[in-house]
Amino acid sequence: MAIKCVFFDFDGVLRSWDYEANTMEEEHGFPHGGMWKVAFTPENVFPAIRGEITDEQWRSNVAQQLTEKFPDSDVSGAMDTWQKHYGVLVPEVLEIIKECKAKMPIALLSNATSRLNYDLEKLGIADLFDFVFNASEIGSIKPEPDIFTHVLNLAGVKTSEAFFTDDIAENVDVAVQLGWTGHLFNNAVGLRTALVETGVL
Predict the structure, then answer these.
(1) Which of 9, 66, 68, 175 is 20 to 30 A from 30 via CA?
(2) Radius of gyration, CA atoms only, the chain
(3) What is the per-residue pLDDT for 86?
(4) E strands, the chain, in order
(5) How many CB atoms lie within 10 A of CB 38?
(6) Range of 68's domain?
(7) How far apart are CA 142 and CA 155, in angstroms?
């Protein structure tokens, strides 16, 4: 059956944090990876992406833990810088998404916090997607089957009509097990090839 909707992950596919994340830590006196290891431990980030706490509460919790773990680092400055940054869009992926949009509905499916819509506005893509599915609004996160079923119902497509790309293998594997067409994202070239092979582009 032909694909009728393409679902894109956000971070690691359309948005990159690599350069900004490293610079942020260096500027504020954190060891490499130290800040993000605290911020993205499951016990910290999962409540935020499940919608159990807001993005603001998550960042506040992170700041408190960073202060305890790295007392000599500029935690306040780092948190302020992080708050003002939105990552950067990957232009090659953005072009692919626009090409898909010209042919069929497209959706964003992200394990994001309550700040997602704000970031989309700041990045100038608030109106790009036909559907924006935020795990923190749904209450279920990838790779849980419930979130995939939920977004299919809202998009009005069947599993065999959905294409999904994500940079995390487990998320793609579950989608494929449920009957989606899945692609593990590594780069824009591979994504374009997969979309051509499935008849989307």
Answers:
(1) 9
(2) 18
(3) 92
(4) 5-8, 15-16, 88-89, 106-110, 131-134, 162-166, 181-184
(5) 20
(6) 18-84
(7) 17
